[in-house]
Every structure is written in structure tokens, then in C-alpha cells.
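Can't paste images in this forum, so I'm doing it all in text. The chain is below; anyone willing to post the predicted C-alpha cells underneath?
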Amino acid sequence: MAIRARLANITPQGQRQRFVTGVIALAAGVIAAGVLIVAGVSPGWLTLLFIPFWYGSLGLVQAREKT
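Text version of the structure:
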């Protein structure tokens, strides 16, 4: 069985951009979570944090997998 090398379909610059975007989105999610918790908002509002955490995770995974 031959092992195939994975080819990236994104340039190193695009990979770096997705990584940075992912880190920024995750940081924004953490900061927003802290602000919302300190402000004492209802827990239902914390579900909106799904968006930055999902976006940040997606960016990091895409950067790692070079897609």
C-alpha cells in the first residue's frame, strides 16, 4: 500500500491568514464571555458565543489541515 503525500490547496500566506483569524476569533469569544459573565447576563445570551468559537475553531483546523 502506497502512502500518498497530502497536497495543500492553500498558500502559506492563506494558511497564516486563517490561523491568525482563528486566534483572533477565539480571543474575541473569550473576551466576550468574560464581559457577559461579569455583566451578569442571562445564560441564554452565552449561546451566542457559539459563533466566534465556531469560527475560530474552523480557522485553526483549516490552517492546520492546509485546506
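Residues 15 and 63 are 5 Å apart (CA to CA). The mean pLDDT is 91.
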